[in-house]
Amino acid sequence: MDKEESYQRIIKARRILDELGNDCKIIEDVSFFQGDWLLLVDLKNRGKVTSDFPLMTSWYIRISIDYPEGGITFYPAKKGGISKIYPHQSPHTPQNETSLFFASNLCLEQYEPGLKAESNDSNRLYHYVVQALEWIRRASLNELVRDGEAFELVAYPNDNRKKIVFAEQREQFLQWEKLTQNKGFCNIKVGSIEQNQHQKLFYITDFFAGSTSYKKADKRIMSYKWGNYVAGEKSGEQKGVWLRLKNMPKLEPWQAPKTWHDLIILLKESGIDFKKDVMPLLNEIRDGLYHFMVLGFPIPMKFGDVNHEYFWQGISLPKLSNHQSANSYFKGFRKNKVGYEYVDMNNLFSKTNEITWVKSENWSENSLTSRGAITPKIGQLKYLIIGVGALGSTIAELLVRLGVTNIDVIDSDILKMGNLVRHRLLASDIDKAKAIRVHKRLSGSNIHYIGNYFAESLEEFIKRDLSALQEYDVIIETTGDDKLLNVLSNVDLKSLFFSISIGLGAKHLYVYSTSLEKIDEEMFSKKIQPFLKLDSEDFPAESFPRDGIGCWHPLFPARIDHIEILSGIAINILEEDLNKNKNYITVIELGKLGLVKEVMREQVL
């Protein structure tokens, strides 16, 4: 947008603020600032006037040059603004001493989600200021958070180059609550780093209790069940320190401890003495390397509720003193445990030494599928998918991304270049076993996926170990091969069974749900025969695409977008039939614009 045009829009928006009268006073008019506009205002406290929240506080409003689109952020001025951190406010980040404001903006969009919907409203600045006034009022009355609202962690300023991840759910919370230990070592697996990767990942895998407990089996008190992806990381492991607190570590009203002195005081409230309880742990990691400390504390799902899970907030420990440290630090002390502790308490953990917080996230199964997951009881079943071609690989990946973590895949085929037009795999997978490469892709689709692969035919699988089929709750066949139905119908097992296939041109989807002991291939074929006939009429054999020139065999005609649509429908049918615990033959017809309709839904007794 032209700068002059933008300026005129901002001036017009600023004039509308006059309607707020004494609640909003312009202290410094609009000026250009680092590519945006900056406006200094005094906002009135409509709530309780205190020393922390006087009657008027000063704020810098940063407004995008693309106004009314773009961002609008409120920062407390260093002169006349608030200095403490409250809920729905980002943490103070290091600023140049000449900076006019603290870089701790108000999270008004989170506080009032409707603001984002007003991106084209010329009165948008006015609406933001009104909401900022309400934020100030509620903050002064200690009403920014209310019972029943989603719980919000203290905003710990973090090192964006690193991220510590853990996997805590209700199950782990109940285990923690039974334990009395509150300190020890943890094992942290280092994630591999690739070019242009924003953050380096560190996975907590195990907790050990005590000061000499690292990797001792009898001292392990908690482990996370990560999937194949984390298990396959080869970048090494680190020894970390864990402390379990009674409450979330914070300074009032809602601020992360800034210095080690602040944290040491808070640890005492949880019965942890830094010198007595933490130093013995630190003495075990004086190896000249950097290590992590993680602080665990219980949190609820919503404010006012009982605690539901533990959160582990990471800290990057400073490099501890050791035998290689400069003699000048010791001032009469020897280079032994007493001397090391003296040096560290005075030089690393003093009143002025700031904490380096590390971004931490809960990557539990529930957390990662909170945006959309399959029915939990279905997600907990163990599956075998026979055939991971275009249809089978798509169904497998959809299930894994929906939260099904235990799926084995079986296929003896090799990926060919022509497969790429509708397969989930890539050019780097050409001439490699589909089962192996699909398994790798599934492992990367959900870090809790623990499935296996078998690069062989079903007949070879059964011949090698027929009893292995007993492990599976659900067997899904996606090849459309009648021979496989005959093979499976002769297996004396009660596993649930689904045959999922598509017709020529992906005009129809065929789903047959039953149990292995009741497979009736003849009945199924008879039921869907009319639709198969329609498919063949639309795609006569001579119209099939050919595999090269000369001696050739016909290729199955179907577009990837149609396979994707029908795969999603198949997942819904599978979920419905499993939830109902009933068997059906279902036929779905794909029409124009990707619209589908049910043309058969017949229960099988």
TrEMBL record:
Q: Which UniProt keywords apply?
A: Nucleotidyltransferase, Transferase
List the protein's name.
ThiF family adenylyltransferase
Is the keyword Transferase in the record? yes
The molecular function terms of the Gene Ontology recorded here are: nucleotidyltransferase activity; ubiquitin-like modifier activating enzyme activity
Which Gene3D superfamilies does UniProt cross-reference here?
NAD(P)-binding Rossmann-like Domain
Q: Which SUPFAM superfamilies match?
A: Activating enzymes of the ubiquitin-like proteins
Instruction: Identify the domain of life.
Output: Bacteria
Organism, scientific name: Lactococcus lactis
Limits of the THIF-type NAD/FAD binding fold domain: 377-479
Q: Does the keyword Transmembrane helix apply?
A: no
Annotated ranges, domain Cap2 central linker: 142-363
Instruction: State one Pfam family annotation.
Output: ThiF
Q: Enumerate the InterPro entries for this protein.
A: Cap2_linker (IPR058964), ThiF_NAD_FAD-bd (IPR000594), Ubiquitin-activating_enz (IPR035985)
